[in-house]
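Aggregate trends can hide what the representation actually does to any particular protein. For completeness, the protein is quoted in full, as a sequence line and a line of structure tokens.
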Amino acid sequence: MGSDVVEPGTVRPGGRTARVRASVLQATGDAIAEHGLIGLDLADVAARAEVGKTTVYRRWSSTYGLIADLIASMAEDSSPRTDTGSLEGDLKANARLVATTLADPRQGPVFKAVIAAATCDDRTAEALRRFYDVRIAEWAPCVTQAVARGDLPAGTDAREVIAAVSAPLYYRLLASGAPLDEAAADRAAEAAIVAARAGVYARGR
């Protein structure tokens, strides 16, 4: 890899560089949605984005570089959390957002590709961890607020609760193939709430 290759997710470029990045990452997501991870090709992405192949090869270096930067971009652009004023409302809103995202005909395949790539590429794995760090940190306050209100036991680990909401939905995406609908989302949130109220996620348990 040449010294002029930019490590994906390490900068937020402006001007023409930002436009090129946006076009290339849009093309990457489109290509994954159409052909999956195996069909991802740098030359095809360059053609879709209408940029030179040399630019794509120099900056991203490989399909893994594209995928790592795509998930980094998704973290940068992630939606703010919903604040309903209740733990149940907040966690159901989180679960429904996750389910809607994973069921999307474009976003679902992108997440599958990112997770698959993360199993064999350290850059993608780190970018995926950063993505979830951002999303969990965004939603964790709804749990800490519930603790402050007395809705959950003191010492409840907010990050563990948020992760527990998403976990069964990712299982549906990656393993069971069961529907990612509103009912599944609400059930995931309700299960996490029951466990949290029982003290399952209390630190030092």
Q: What stands out?
A: The chain has two domains: 15-74, 80-197.
